Amino acid sequence: METFSLSTRTLTLKGISNTQSAFGAPHDKVVVALHGWQDNAASFTPLMEALGPDVPMFALDWPGHGLSDWRSPDAHYYFIDYVDDLQQVLAKCRAKEIHLVGHSMGAMVASLYTACFAEQINSLTLIEGVGLVCASPEESTELLKRALVQRMRAPKLRVYDSAQDLIARRLAVSDFDEAIATKLMQRNIQTTAAGVTLRTDPRIKHYSAFRYSPDQAHALLADINLPTLLIKGISGYQLVRDNETDFSRHYNNLRVESVVGGHHCHMENAQLCARLIGAHLHQNGAI
Questions:
Q1: What pTM value is reported for the model?
Q2: How far is CA 117 from the centre of its chain?
Q3: Residue 17 buriedness (CB in 10 A; 0-12 / 13-18 / 19+)
Q4: Which of 37, 173, 190, 268 could staple 261 via S-S, CB 3.0–4.6 A?
C-alpha cells in the first residue's frame, strides 16, 4: 500500500491564521482529525497510513500541543477554546464537505462543534470519547478555587537527560507500548542547550476553572442527527463507557463498535479501526 508523510497532511496552528495553505485543496472533501489531551497529530499516523492516500485526512496539533504555538501568557486552556480553534481552522477550509474524526478530548470537541454547526459537518467519528466531561453545580466553587491557586504558580518546563527518559515517563502513565509512546513523543520533544524538554505547554495540565453541569451538557448535545460512529477500546477508559450510557441518546444516528485495545485503540489496532472508519466515511460520501 502506498503511504505518505504525515507532515504533508498536518495543520500546525501558528496563531491559527497560518494553517497549511493546501488544506481543503484540491480536495472537495476532507477528513479533519482531532487528537486528545496531551497527545498530538502523530496519534493519527497509524490510522492515516492504514486508510491510505485516497482518504484526504488532515490531522492538526491543538495549541500548546505538538508543533503548534502555545497560547499567549495571558490566556488559559479552556475546553471551549478548543472548539473555537476548530471553528477558526474550518473557516479556512475550502472543501465542500467536512468529516470530523476525534479521539478522546478531540471527540468531545467534535461533538460540541457539531451540535452548534451541524450544517457544516457531513459525518462524525468518535474514538474513545463521547458526550462531555461534566461537574455538578456543587463542585463549581472547588473547581474554580483549585484552578486559581494553581495559576498563581509559575509553570515549570522540566529538563530531562534524554528523549528516552520522556518516553519512559509517558509509558508509566499510559496503557500502550513503547512503540506507540515513541511515535507520540517524537512530535512532542525538543532538544535545547540545557537538555531535552517537552514541546507541550505545561499550562495545559492546569485544573479546569469551569465545566458544564450535566444539565447544560445534555442541553448542548440534545440533537446530533449526523451519521456518527463511536469506536471504543475493549480495555479503554471507564469514562467513555459511562458517557456512552449517559449521552448516546443525543446522537440520533449512532453506530457503536468495540475493538481490541485501550484508550489509544486507533493506534494499537489501526487496521481494524481504519476498516470501520473507512466504511463509515465511504457510506457518508467522504471517499
A1: 0.91
A2: 18
A3: exposed
A4: 268
Q: Where are the domains of the chain?
A: 6-155+204-283, 157-200
Instruction: Give the position of cell 483549585.
Output: 146
Tell me whether residue 281 is exposed, middle or buried, using C-beta atoms within 10 angstroms of its C-beta: 0 to 12, 13 to 18, 19 or more.
buried
- Tens digit of pLDDT per residue, the chain (287 long)? 222 334 445 555 544 433 444 455 556 889 999 999 999 999 999 999 999 988 888 899 999 999 888 988 888 999 999 999 999 888 888 788 999 999 999 999 999 999 999 999 999 999 999 999 999 999 999 999 999 999 888 778 889 989 999 999 899 888 888 999 998 998 999 988 888 999 999 999 998 899 999 999 999 999 999 999 999 999 999 999 999 999 999 999 999 999 999 999 999 999 999 999 999 999 998 77
Is 195 within 8 Å of 60 (Cβ atoms)? no
Helix H or strand E encompassing 145:
helix 140-151
Q: Which fold has domain 6-155+204-283?
A: Rossmann fold (3.40.50)
